[in-house]
Amino acid sequence: MNITLTVNGKKRTAEISPDDFLLETLRSLGFKSVKRGCDTGSCGLCTVLVEGKPVLSCSYLSARADGHEVTTIEGAGEEAKKVASALVGEGVEQCGFCSPGLVLSILGMKKELGKGATDDQIKNYLNGNLCRCTGYEGQLRGIRQYLEV
Questions:
Q1: What's the pLDDT at 96?
Q2: 3-state SS string over the chain?
Q3: What is the pLDDT of residues 99-110, one digit of tens each?
Q4: How many independent structural domains does the chain possess?
């Protein structure tokens, strides 16, 4: 079956099977920043935005994205750089493997929760975004800083 979706502002058509997941479809279209991690929807590495909301592409059927706007880290532009700057400013030094999914989740969170998000709301929103390099405290400080700007 064919689907049409807009990825990072450009209309794309893909031939998919009814049981293909968005992760596979995006990677087949050349978006290698969408990473395969757990394949169970638990690690957050595969996070992309669909219509501005974070989804785990390893468990989101490609057919559901038909006709929708999908944003990967390549399409997040200046806002992604602002998030990265806030994280680095708080000493979040990490390998970067989880960064695309984490940054996209943060962008979705800002849109949904806004400036007044509490620490508990932030932690709840990011539940499932796993990072092996940090203790999350620096990330939390960086996220708070980003949300306040």
A1: 84
A2: CEEEEEECCEEEEEECCCCCEHHHHHHHCCCCCCCCCCCCCCCCCCEEEECCEEEEHHHCEHHHHCCCEEECHHHCHHHHHHHHHHHHHCCCCCCCCCHHHHHHHHHHHHHHHCCCCCHHHHHHHCCCCCCCCCCCHHHHHHHHHHHHC
A3: 999 999 999 999
A4: 2
Question: Domain of 121: which CATH number?
Answer: 1.10.150.120
Please tell me whether residues 14 and 59 are part of one structural domain. Answer: yes
Cα 82 from Cα 31, distance rounded (Å): 21
pTM greater than the 0.85 cutoff: yes
What does each C-alpha distance from 94 to 35, 43, 99 come to in angstroms?
16, 16, 8
What was the pLDDT predicted at 103? 96
Residue 96 CA to its chain's centroid (Å)? 13
User: pLDDT-derived band of residue 135, with 50, 70 and 90 as boundaries?
Assistant: confident
pLDDT digits (tens, 9 = 90+) for 11-25: 999 999 999 999 999
Domain encompassing residue 102 = 77-148
